[in-house]
Design brief:
The protein is mainly α. The chain has one domain. The protein is built from 4 helices and no strands.
């Protein structure tokens, strides 16, 4: 058998989950959301179905990044937002 890839070290936070829920509610595609956060689409599905971060409400529309597809990851969006 082959070897597994090294873990990315990326972990979603409750704040990320709120953004993800808001993006799902807005109608963003799961693979666009996953690319934005640098995670597998399965993590997006887990947040959608409530198996991860079950009590976190969706972020408001004004707090969401522009609708994808995304050419820059979340980190770059946050840095530009703070300027």
């Amino acid at each position: 058998m082959g070897t597994r890839a090294e873990p990315s070290g990326l972990a979603l936070t409750a704040q990320d989950a709120a953004l993800i829920r808001g993006m799902i509610d807005r109608g963003d595609r799961h693979h666009d959301i996953a690319a934005f956060f640098g995670v597998n689409q399965g993590r997006i599905a887990e947040i959608k179905d409530g198996s991860r971060f079950p009590g976190v409400p969706a972020a408001t529309t004004k707090d969401l990044p522009p609708k994808g597809p995304y050419l820059v990851p979340k980190v770059a969006w946050q840095e530009n937002r703070l300027r």
